[in-house]
Amino acid sequence: MKHKSKIISLFVATLFVMGFCACGSGGKKISGGDVASSSSSATIAAKPAKVFVPAIAPSSFTQAQKMRYMNEHYWDKFDFSDTTFISQADTATMLTSYAVYAVGCVPDSLIDKSMKNLMQKASASKPMFEYFLFLAEQVLHDPNSPLRDDERYIPVLESAIASPLLDEYERKPYEFDLSIALQNRVGRAANDFLYTLPNGRTKRMYDIQAEYLLVFISNPGCPMCREVREQLLSSPMLNELSERGDLKVLVLYPDEDLTAWRDHLKDYPSAWINGYDKGKVITKQRSYDLRAIPALYLLDKEKRVMAKDCTDVAYIEGLIIKSE
């Protein structure tokens, strides 16, 4: 729970960067992904913002009981029939409330049931349904969200595709996103791919033999990529595993500017494998989600996915410790 709380705090901080936080009098409101006009925004700002108050678990409950209670009762005080809430609520507050529920109150064993139940409640009207689609997209799907999580977003996408509230054209984007989200799911075999080395030789990812393979999708000169690289290099545990040969790192460049790629090869340790996606096959086949770079994929000996589309090196370390 401490790890989740830390990430939720990071998400709240990210809202400021993304510009979702309340701006005070005259500030813009966002509802269902649309920015209201300045005139309507001023009207909304003149009224007290509507506030959602989540349920509170009894203090006498154990941690497990609190989790179960919050999973079942978190939205008890939310009026899903009140469409005026959408325009009068503070977006940042609702995004945070949604994040707390989706990440902090939904155990892995109940992801499908819980997320679909919430979307069913939101089906009271099309505006409310679309509002919760917006919340889910911002928290669980946006490339800038530290809470990006396909496993929690997949039930939302499936609910959108199955909903009679959306027509076939409105469902298309969700069908596309679902096809990407279903790739490389945790616990399942990763999609194989070819990579080309600096010397021009092409090899297959599945041929890399190690207890753990860390696929590091990176772009040259990317500040966040550099930050993740430094975290990997400063990890005593990962360095020890690498020196023993139990962990191998494949740095994959998914784009076409090979001059820039070659100029930055020196940025990585010689023990790491550096390759690029010749012909941008991965992009064309959509076998990996490349919307957010950098991205780490931790694979086990059988190339099953342990971590997907991640940038949290401490989380990677924790997964390896648990599997030992």
Question: How would you describe the overall organization of this protein?
Answer:
- Mean pLDDT is 88; it is low at 13-45.
- The chain starts with a helix and ends with a helix.
- The protein contains 14 helices and nine strands.
- Helices cover 47% and strands 12% of the residues.
- α7 (126-141) runs antiparallel to α8 (150-162).
- The strands form three sheets. The chain has a five-stranded mixed beta sheet, covered by helices on one side.
- With 324 residues, it is α/β, with parallel strands linked by helices.
- β1 (30-31) and β2 (34-35) form a beta hairpin.
Q: Specify the number of helices.
A: 14
Count of beta strands? 9
Proportion of strand residues: 5-15%
Question: Which value, in Å, is the CA radius of gyration?
Answer: 22 Å
Mean pLDDT across all amino acids: 88
Q: What structural class do the secondary elements suggest?
A: alpha/beta
How would you spell out the order of helices and strands? Answer: HEEHHHHHHHHEEEHHEHEHEEH
Helix content estimate = 40-55%
Low-confidence stretches: 13-45
Described by strand count, sense and barrel closure, the largest sheet is: 5 strands, mixed
Kindly report the spatial arrangement of strands forming the biggest sheet. 7-6-5-8-9
Query: What's the end-to-end separation, in Å?
Result: 22 Å
Label the overall shape. globular
